[in-house]
UniProtKB/TrEMBL annotation:
GO biological process: enzyme-directed rRNA pseudouridine synthesis
Function: Responsible for synthesis of pseudouridine from uracil.
Database matches in Gene3D superfamilies: Pseudouridine synthase (3.30.2350.10), RNA-binding S4 domain (3.10.290.10)
Name used for this protein in its record: Pseudouridine synthase
Lineage, top ranks: Bacteria, Bacillati, Actinomycetota, Actinomycetes, Propionibacteriales
Reactions catalysed according to its record: a uridine in RNA = a pseudouridine in RNA
Organism: Nocardioides islandensis
Amino acid sequence: MARLFGLSRTRAADLISHGHVQVDGSTAVKSDRLVAGTLLEVAIPSLADPLEVVPAIVEGIRIIHDDDSIVVIDKPVGVAVHPSPGWHGPTVVGHLAAAGFRIATGGASERQGIVQRLDVGTSGVMVICKGERAYSVLKNAFRHRKVDKVYHALVQGHPDPLEGTVDAPIGRHPKADYKYAVMADGRHSVTHYSTLEAHRFASLLEVHLETGRTHQIRVHMTALKHPCVGDLTYGADPTLAQRLGLERQWLHAMRLGFEHPDSGEYVEYESTYPDDLAHALDVVRGLD
């Protein structure tokens, strides 16, 4: 099969195991041998492009602001910003395509118009560019740290000091490629935090990102021994998460401020806590 159809042996074996191959009318197994006169029938399904943007309305995405250049949304948990290998769930760009928004063509095809990202498990405010000039201006603003990114995070325990800065480089975790960690050879990463509320089991922090590394807040809080509540990937207490009814990290993108790419005027957009985070915070307050 591999020679006849120009397939890899792995792909040929996969087709056989999924019942796409018949030998003389019977479903084939990998050990079957072909002899002269044998009828070999192979159905080769088309492979879906994992980076293809599939238009689909996503329940829960709220439009905060919309003009000719940008659209600002409130992203719910469980939604990726753009398609990626291994992700088969809803995406922000898929929703915008289905809703009829015209997005800038700057960037790779699956993330056109995207100048920032939020983790699938992180909710909150984010901006997407509709025009090419807006994409160029805001991409540059994010790159040069001219965008104010403010998050709220509920972390275990009480950070000491109550207000501070974490300046520690972040790189891929040496033993788990889906995680990140503070690494000597990592990328420069700076997180500023201040305590808004201190409770018996957890503290509510306001976090300002100076840089924008993947999982930055989650990694830096874990490095301080105060992981985001519910963040089991980074060592949070599963018992506390269950007690609060959390199925993801308590982390929310609250505010986003920047100079509008058209007017140059400083604009700021804000989100509110989604139901799961609001409930968990109420429970924490009640445990004092």
